[in-house]
Each structure stands twice: as structure tokens, then as C-alpha cells.
Amino acid sequence: MTGPTAVSETLYTSLADQLPGFISSALLQCKRLPTLPAVALNVLKISRGADATLSDYANAIEHDPALTARVMSVANSVHYLRAAQPPHTCFDATQRMGLDVTLATVLSFCLFEKDHTARARLQFWQRALTAAVAASYLAQQLCPHQSGSVFTTALLQDIGILALQTAYPADAELLYGTEYTSHPHIMQVEKRYFGCDHALVSAWLLAKWGAHDELVQAVLHSHDGFETADNAALCLNVSGSIADAWLSANPAQALAGVIRQLNALTPSNEWAISGLLAHLEHTLPPLMDTLNLSTPAVVNSVALLQEAQQLLFEHTLSLSARLDAQQQARETLLHDYAELEQRSRIDSLTQLANRAWLEQQLRERFHLCLTTKRTMSVVFIDLDHFKVLNDRYGHQAGDQVLAHFGRMLASLIRVGDLAGRYGGEEFLVILPDEDAEGARRFAERITRRLQERPMARVDQEPLYVSVSIGVACLTDGGFGDERELIDAADQSMYFIKRSGRGGVSVYGH
Q: Which residues form the HDOD domain (predicted)?
């Protein structure tokens, strides 16, 4: 299908209005966006019915010869060789495999395409299947008449990730390629990066396909947490957290967090968690193998639960609360660092700080010095005759000079200093707690290093450059703000320029 049915048109329009304009435009223009054929949508419709039988599913599947062949192939795979007779009909195949494997086979066949082995896609499908198996088990305990629909909803709840990966392939590795990243952290990054999360994209995509409104709404709210009176929604929402724990680098700690959340609502039954983990341990490996997915690391469900219970005990002694806070702070710091590093700190050519980051840091450090009665110096550097160099040797040689100069400058600064490219061939270095004389010595080390080392080679001949440097110290003038401090260093640098270039001048000295 290419668009929503009349029944879901209002919901589709509402979801489309919630999407940022650039996201909906990119998704609508993407030619490789995943889609579901009519037979798959019919299977989803059947899963809604409490009285649906395997015969109903088989009859729907048989309308698609390719899908039927896939179901028959799975039913004849090595996992079902112990059966006395091979299946001869689609009903025989679904009866042999069971409802969950049949649904997983249908939906994965329609959505896998050819790139499901890519790392980010593989992680998606591993989580989707783990969540679906967990949701189905929980539904059998809490709302058995809805187990089929809960399984399919869990399997499709993160389909928006596939859509975003397809529409933004260059960003997929950055957003989804990191192994063991927690799902809440992924959604935080999506909101900062796209202005929405994949739950909204998933719901929009399902509405676009023409899926029924109940499925769309369930997917839209599948990440809302555990506080719900709807048992089917609870099974779905818990399943994602269980899947995250199962696939985590530290599954016991993650599982302890899930149990802790459940205990905050109502004391959980240990046998239910124990049974769920045992079900995952025995069900997931053959299911993933059947669907040609590599199986995650083997998990011992008994040992996992014991370790999680020990962590919960430690939490009652307040240790886990501190660990949770540290982990959340670590994730926030890692995200903030990565985002700033990628987008707003680094000049790509010199690998030094860019102008925006320099000015922000100088502004913060300037005010810190004023309030704490500390000093600070700035060193303003301009490469001499750079335009002539570019005209004579070409911009490639000029870029090589800038890159080598950036590396040289980075090698001279101390921990706590900040060096950056201020613009063109201009550089700025911030020296906290350094007076004018110390800044002068630093500047002179730069000039000596340039005399010793060429910054490029042209036709195998070394190319040396000189610089004009201006220094300004906070305690040497009544500077009202950081801008005046930079201007003072800039004036000193131009004094050297007018005096013949290749030297150091200190403001006020």
C-alpha cells in the first residue's frame, strides 16, 4: 500500500503534523523506505482478533506465493527436522512453527530486504525479536487473548529506526551503530538530532501503510513507561526494556533496573521474571537462526536473575542509586562531548578548536577570572604572507601548512590551555593562569619551532613559514570583556606586521 486507509486518515494526518517538516519530507522522498504488502497488513489485521486461528493466518499467507515459499522453507529448516512428515500446505507449516515464529517469518520477510546483516540493522532486528518474544510471553500470563497482536506490535514498535536509517544513511552509524547503547539514550539523541524520536516515526509509517489505528496508537506509546492500566500496553512497554537488558553489555544491572521499576508499581512475581528469562534463553537462539540472524552472546537466565537480585539488594543499601546517577551522568557527558566534538568545537582542517568554541570558552574563562581574581593571557597568531603562499604554491599547499601548523600548536600547549583556528590563517591560544611574560615565552617557542621545522614540502623542497604574534594579559589592562582582550592581542599582532613580520609583541609592554 502507498498510503493510509480512510479509517486511519485522521490519525495519519495528526502524526504527520507532529513530525518536523524536514523529516516528513525526507521520508516521503526516500525511494527505499520499508513497506508492507497487502498480505502482511492482512496478517496484522488477523492478529487483532482474539479468536484468530492458525488456519486464518495460513489462508492469508497463501495469497502471496513468495511469502508462502518462505514460510514453507522455514518450516522445513533444520529446527523442525524431528517432525515425522514434512509440511505439504501453508497450514501444516504454520502449525509446525507456531504463531510467534509464523508472525516473525512473515514480517521479517517483508521488511528485511537485502541489508539486514548490516551492523545497525542487525542490532535492530535482534532487539525487535527479543522484545517480541518477551512481549508474547508476558501477554500469555496477563492477557492471553491478545498475545498475537502484542507480539506483532512489539516486533514493529521500532520500525521507525529502519526508516530513519534508510532516509539518513550517513547518520545511521553515528546514531545507531554503537553497540549496547541503551534505548532511552538513543531516543534522547534522536530528539536532539531530528526533533522527534523513532516511536513517532514508527507510528507515522504504520499509519501510512494503512495499519489499523489500535496498532498505530500502541506503537506510538510503546516507550511511555510502565504506568498503565492496560495489560497489553504494559506487556509491550516492559518487553522493550527486557530486550535492552538481555542485549546489554551489563545485562544484570540493566535487568535490576527493570525489576526495580516494576517493583515501584507493584511487587513483581519472581517466578514470572524467572520464567520469562528462561523462555528467552531457549526460544531466541533457534528463532534468530531460523531467520538468518546471528545470535547475541549466550545468556544464562538463572545466573542473570541471581546477579540482578544481588544488585537489587545492594540498591536497598543505596549503592545502586549512586551507580544509576553516575551512569546517567556519564551518558549525558558522553553525548554532550560527542555532539560538541562533532558539530561545534573542532575545525576540520587543523583539528583545533573552531572560532565559536574559542569565543565561548574565552567568554566563560574571562568572567571566571574576574570573579576569582585570577589572570589569563591570550596569544593571537597570524601566518605571514599566507595569501602569497596560496597564490604561488596553490591552496592544497596552503591547507597543508595550516594542518601542520595546527598539529605543531597542539603539541606546545599544556593541559587546560585551548588553541584554535580563529579564521583563515589566524589562530588564537587561551592560556589560563599565565602572565604576560609566560605568554611571551610560549609565543617565542612557536617562532623557534617554525624556524626548525618546515610546515610543508613543495616538490620535495621544505617550505618554512613565519608568524606575527600578539600577546595580551588580562592584568595588563582594564578590559571590560573578552572582546577587548582579543582586540588588544590583535593590535599587538598588527604592530609586528607593520614592523616587518616574524616576531612577538606584548600589549602594554
A: 33-225
